[in-house]
Amino acid sequence: MRKINYIIISILFSFLFxxxxxxxxxxxxxxxxxxxxxxxxxxxxxxxxxxETINTEEFINNEFTILNFWASWCAPCRKEHPNLVRLxxxxxxxxxxxxxxxxxxxxxxxxxxNGNPFDILAxxxxxxxxxxxxxxxxxxxxxxxxELKILKKYIGPLNIKDVNEIRKLVKK
Amino acid sequence: xxxxxxxxxxxxxxxxxSHANENLNNKILKNLRCLVCQGQTVQDSNSEFALIxxxxxxxxxxxxxxxxxxYQFLSEKFGDWILLNPPFKKNSYLLWFxxxxxxxxxxxxxxxxxxxPKIRSKE
Lengths: 172, 123
Known about the structure:
The structure holds two protein chains of two kinds. By secondary structure, chain A is an alpha/beta fold. Chain A is 34% helix and 23% strand. Chain A contains four helices and seven strands, in the order H-E-E-E-H-E-H-E-E-E-H. Chain A has a seven-stranded mixed β-sheet with strand order 2-1-5-4-3-6-7, covered by helices on one side. In chain A, strand 4, helix 3 and strand 5 form a beta-alpha-beta unit. In chain A, helix 2 (75-87) runs parallel beside helix 4. The radius of gyration of chain A is 22 Å and the shape is elongated. By secondary structure, chain B is mostly helical. Chain B has a domain at 2-87: Orthogonal Bundle (Helicase, Ruva Protein, domain 3), CATH 1.10.8. Helix content of chain B is 63%, strand content 0%. At the A-B interface, helix 1 of A face helix 2, helix 3 and helix 4 of B.
């Protein structure tokens, strides 16, 4: 009988040990790995300072599309801007900038000051449309292919390492 | 008289529906994780992200989406991490069944521990 008790106690302890040990490696912050390979939503985005809209379905015509969510009041966006300019020189990528919850004049002077790398400039005045793209803060950048599948999603400012990674991804 | 009753009925209908929507709204927001906060629900947070999600959930309820549809929409956009109540999926079987399994094992253990040993009769 004692033997059975020992077996049950050791099973319980092994269980607890395995669970606690395996949870040591678990990430406790949000990451985007679940979104890779998923299709982006087919939604209308308002073009910047215009009554016209663009549907994400139109990105099918591009070999690769980068959606960058930015604002002039966002300091990390200023930091990543030179890297967006670098990306704009890659021929098979269409760069779409979505300006979020921004003052129109500040956004314009931001682009005048730092250069406009975007092929298409859009806006999301209240930030609600960005939820359709799983954006929860800015800057965020999504690389999609011609099937509208997400290849990579970057949270935070793009750095030179990210630019090189994108270069490799679009070369394949 | 008939008109007054109709107005009262309409008023009652509108208020009860908005009350139900508010309850549903609160219930959903309490089950959503604020992705930019430390251990807060969307309901408790006043961050920019939480404010946008609150507004989106409100719109979705107005559009007639039910609780499940709203969770599904948000989990498609942000992954299951946004849900405080993890969905019943293949990779969460252990999470759901482990408490019951441990409970059963505990009962078995207690049974054996509390079982009195048989007193052997002297021959």
